[in-house]
Amino acid sequence: MDRRKFMKSAGLAAGATAATASLAAPAISQGRQEWKIVTTWPKNFPGLGTGAQRFADSITAATDGRITVKLFAAGELVPPFESFDAVQNGTAEMYHGVDYYWQGKHPAFAFFGAVPLGLTAGEQDAWIQWGGGQELWDELSGQFNVKPFQCGNTGVQMGGWFRNEINTIEDLRGLKFRMPGLGGEALRQLGVSVINLPGGEIFQALQSGAIDGTEWVGPWNDLAFGFYKITKFYYYPGFHEPGPTLSVGLNKDIWDKLSDSDKAIVSGCARAENNHSYAEFMAKNGQALATLVNEHGVQLKKFSNEIFDAFGSASDEVVANVAQHDDLSKKIYDSYIAARKSGAGWTDISEQAYSLGRDRIIGKE
Predict the structure, then answer these.
(1) Is 144 helix (H, G, I), strand (E, B) or coil?
(2) Which backbone phi and psi does 176 adopt, to 5 degrees?
(3) pLDDT tens digits, one per residue of 238-289
(4) How far is 90 from 267, CA to CA, in rounded Å?
(5) Tens digit of pLDDT for each residue in 165-178?
(6) What is this structure's pTM?
(7) Which residues contact 82 (CB under 8 A, 6 or more apart)?
(8) What does the angle CA 155 – CA 58 – CA 241 come to, to the nearest 5 degrees?
């Protein structure tokens, strides 16, 4: 080969390599990443879908776009109940959902979403953040290559929508009712035919008669789905989800590689959304309930003590059975029940006692 041609070719190649390196260097040096977050919620659904979007946007903003998070609603990238698998196998970096959806993988996941007759929102926060719950959650989720965070709470949920009045336990038997988690397992003990559906499929199932009734969240979300168009009997209180944690799971391989500052950003954004979400549900539920009753003719009903006691007996059995699954389940169960005992004692003489006293003096206004 001609020496001058060789040197010229080599020089051009070197120049091209240098140019390519100079173009790629900013992205590499700044450590830019693009994450996908998959959810179990319909796109932009009030409180649930919008909260997941708010969390995603907060990470993008807090890192000045260095970590850009793009949200995919239920079914856009994967089916809603496959969100956990997508994070575990790396199809997506994060999910936003409720961890009782994954109890088929391990029954103890239910404790980090909600269990019947369990912890209220404040009590759940206390257990996870100060009572050893986060460490147990990390241990459980870590077996599936996931790092979990609290990322929202709806507060005490409603008991559900029914086509007919529920006056006795017999009125429940044989009903086709949508309820996930251990609450659904408790209803099965009472003869209910329990069906688990993602939120986006509930209205159609009610409309077609595939289910006779459903629980979802509370007045704000239930109004948005329009359940009042089909059923008019709206029962309270819900026994099944007294303080359900909305959760985010991040692929653990990614979490382990983050800098301490980026870990602080992700966990801080999740904690902020946990607080923001609960406040939003508290603000919106009362207004929505008034709309349901006053504008749509919904009949608000309270479960009788007999029915609620039956819920309680079935729930105790179902929750206790989880402890028999393995040693970790027993450890989580013991920790949770201890937190419930401690939390309930304080709630009784603080928030509950105050609320009852306030109602006696000022009524419902």
Answers:
(1) coil
(2) -95, 110
(3) 999 999 999 999 999 999 999 999 999 999 999 999 999 999 999 999 999 9
(4) 20
(5) 999 999 999 999 99
(6) 0.89
(7) none
(8) 15
CATH topology of domain 31-154+243-282: D-Maltodextrin-Binding Protein; domain 2 (3.40.190)
**What is the Cα gyration radius of the chain?**
24
DSSP state of 131: S
62-81 pLDDT per residue, tens: 999 999 999 999 999 999 99
- Which of the two residues, 4 and 57, has the higher pLDDT score? 57
Looking at the chain, list the stretches that DSSP marks H as alpha helix, in order from N- to C-terminal side.
3-29, 49-62, 83-88, 121-130, 133-142, 181-189, 202-208, 219-225, 252-257, 260-296, 305-322, 327-347, 353-362
Half-sphere exposure of 284 (CA within 13 A, CB side): 19
Domain boundaries, the chain: 31-154+243-282
Taking residue 268's Cβ as centre, other Cβ atoms within 10 Å add up to 14
What is the Cα–Cα distance from 205 to 200, expressed in whole angstroms? 10
- Two tokens at 5? 């041609």
Tokens representing 153?
A: 């709470």
Between CA 56 and CA 49 the distance in angstroms is 11
d(CA 237, CA 160): 9
Band of residue 4 on the pLDDT scale cut at 50, 70, 90: very low
